[in-house]
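Notes to self after the Tuesday call (sharing in case useful).
The group wants a holo model before anyone commits to mutagenesis around the pocket. I volunteered. Ligand is biotin. Logging inputs and output together so the record is complete.
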Amino acid sequence: MTAVRRLVGRAVHVLETVDSTQNVLTRLAAEGAAEGTVVTARHQTAGRGRRGRRWWDAPGQSLMMSVLLRPSISIGQAPQLSLVAGLAVADALEIAAGVTARIRWPNDVLVDGKKIAGVLPEAVARGDGRLAYVLLGIGVNVDQDRFPDDLGNEATSLGLATGRTHDHGRLLEAVLEALDRRYDEWLSAGFAGLRDEWRRRASTLGERVPTGDGREGVAVDVDESGALLVDAGRGTLTRVVSQIAPS
Ligand code: BTN
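Result:
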């Protein structure tokens, strides 16, 4: 029998300290790195989060990686990949660490109602509106027993949630394997094929959320493209599309 070779993680660059794994992978992507290439580091000096925020880490306590994907899609479909990644990280944390992981739309992973992992999608478009590539930056809090004051009571780690230590190599492998599987499913069936699994894990549905235009309402569902459907009280549902930053 021939083993099927995995796409995500076919090349993994393991580094010590970098500014951001997103920056390292951007350079590799520009040099033509293959789809599925991964950069992981023990510490970032300038880790980035979504919406221009900083992603804090203490050396050796977090799992941090960036994954290069090159699907043949329009740039407008790229935000779906951040939901795919959030689902994969939730899968992986359940399988490898035994926690119950929920997803706060679009891609925050929560355990016990607190954020344990986040995904930063960054995309590069070609001139014709197609995607050249996307970088999925993934950060998981593993061993932290405290967080900086500005994160307040919002964050947790696998150590805090389970009271034990976790093997970083095993967690990395679990995330790459889960992402490989979810990406493959998404390539075959789109977000529509993952929608029920996503809903099952969602913490957002039924919650009050901002609509992005100054209003807020109750999140009632996600549609087949991964947009959040929000009842903001005007008789129709407002579609809220997750944003993807340029790399
Ligand atoms: C978020 O704001 O929730 C997304 C956080 C993403 C952090 C990861 S850590 C690895 C990769 N490199 C970065 O600079 N950011 C992402």
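Two things stood out.
The two ends are 40 Å apart (CA to CA).
The chain is about 25% helix and 30% strand.
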